[in-house]
Fold each of these.
Amino acid sequence: MSDTKSDSLGPAPAQDQPIGELREYLARAYGLPPGYTVERVVRHGGRLGTALVVHIRAPGGVKNLVIRYEEERHCRSAASLRAKAVADTDGLTRGQLITDKWALSVYEALCALADVYERMDVEGQTWEWVQELYSRGQAITGLTLDAAAVDARYQALKTLKDYPYSRTTVQNPDVTRDGKVIRSVPPIFVDREDKTCWVTARHLHVFVKYDLGADVVEDTVFSRILEIGGKRRRIEQWNRGRTDKPRLVLFKLPTPAADDDPDAQDESVAEAEKAAE
């Protein structure tokens, strides 16, 4: 067990302790406000020269945060542990407890939590991508992909094509005049006719690779979504004046336990639509 004194972090919980203890230790180390949780850690290669990404889940209504250490060696120094956390969370963290004495203990806790997620099966991890997308995405509603509704179908494709979400907007978000970071979120299209949820191939890849920090190539992302029940469609549509014709590859998002729970899709759609309010 870790030292519970307010002025000392103490050693990290043993790896065989409950995941909750590791998360509590890291939340305390980073000085996270109440309601924020270190949800998971991803090690990209597991070596000192490869990246380590810390995913922080925020309380309801607040966007989740990501701390990305470009090299794991930076997680062994108190100064770099704290500095990168402050920079990537816009000053949310307060890491006074991360000192030179306890920096390696924090690194141990990060690696221990990452090991838990590295053991997750591929299908389980893919479902996690989809659930995170439903949770974080911005719903696009009121339109349809029905070929009979020419105007609505064109507007749906045009909206998705022009939506400002990319590697650049994720890694270099806009900042307001008063210094507030405007975080970019992926769009989820909710068809008004059948309530199915769709995401473009480009937005899906950006979300998994740059928002979630998964070290996977584009084709792997797509094939794994198809393996858990997603559908792929290539759609194009002229506007009325035949001056513009958006072409997109879209993925229909699967819904968790849809075969066993008839309410599963309704719950996933409701979660996506809530983001549009």
Amino acid sequence: MSPPVPTQLTVADPANGIELKLWDCYDVPQQQWQIHDDKIQLVGTSKYLHALSAFLTPDLCWDVRDGQLEPPMNLFGVLQTWQCYDGNPNQMFYTETITF
């Protein structure tokens, strides 16, 4: 039996409303995330020039689609990318370190 393949949340295209999916880790830009303040942001989106347009792609963050935070919380199918906005509760995520 082979070991499990590591997976990571991935965005297929850097744009608003694109659902995040688990995909095998390939160290590609669509899998490069950074924590910025209370948001999780796709690295490099503020200066990323989209190959099919002459416009700069906005900063893109994890976003809970339509604020769907009611239990049961199944984030698959609910997490998407959306332009980062300070103070947007749909984009606020918190990390916690657990030590054993």
Amino acid sequence: MLSVEDNELLTRTGPGTPMGDFFRRFYRTREHLGPTDAAIVQFRRLMLRGARELGQGVEPSAARNGAAYAVRSGSAVADRSVPFAEVMVERFGDPLGRAPSLRVGASARP
């Protein structure tokens, strides 16, 4: 169990605090993510939604669905006029690049 002092050190994240300074080293609001970073964007959305649900006392749905992590990597070259979702469908068969068993209406793997 943490002492009161250690707990204060680890949980205070305001400017000028040790943890606040640590977090600000990795602050992500100024990143320039592109279409090839779709998995990063989806993962962050999943984590934020899970944190909100947990804050409301609801177990995050992802905790009950391990298969949701079956995302695969890949590459494709397309003209910039082609919408990203079209490229994903052409390359992976799904606009988010999900494995076949994770698509809406797909049957689960045996």
Amino acid sequence: MRTLWYLAITVMIIGLVVIGCSKPAQTPTPAPAPSPAPAPGPAEPIKLKLAHSVPPMSATHTAIIVPWTKMIEERTAAIGKPVQFTLFPGGALAKIPEQYDNCCNDQSHVLAETLRL
């Protein structure tokens, strides 16, 4: 009976040594990180039509409206969302009474008018 116990203990010790000395299970290697998406190219400009009834040679057109549109174009281009204006001075798209309806019907996008007192 003693021999049987020694044999059982010996088998258990050999089993523990074999299990303890075996190589650890390999952990799966993490997948490589996805590469970042390429930076988008320059955006297409938003094209807006600006209509007003002021003559193209007037100070209102040359000193206020034109510089304002240039400033908006520069600032929006600097942030990557360009806006481009096409000017229609002197009532080129519609006369004064129809300009509001013209803007509401998407024939122009921006309406600039001056008060005439």
